[in-house]
Amino acid sequence: MWGRGHILALILAPLSIGQAAADTDSRCWGQAVQGGLLFCKAAPDSVVSVIADNQILQTGIPVSAGGVATIGIKRNSPLELTITSTDIDSVPAVITIGERDDPVRYLSGLDCDKIDARTDAQKAHAGRSWVKKTNAFSQFEQGDGARNGFRRPADGPESSPFGPVRQYIGTGPNGETCESQSVHRGYDIAVGVGTPVTAPAAGIITLGDPDLYYEGGTVFLDHGAGLISVFMHLDEVIASPGDYVEAGQLIARSGNTGRTTGPHLHWAVKWRNAGSSDRGGDFYIDPALLLSLDPNG
Question: Hey, what domains does the chain have and what are their CATH numbers?
Answer without folding.
Answer: 18-96 (2.60.40), 104-291 (2.70.70.10)
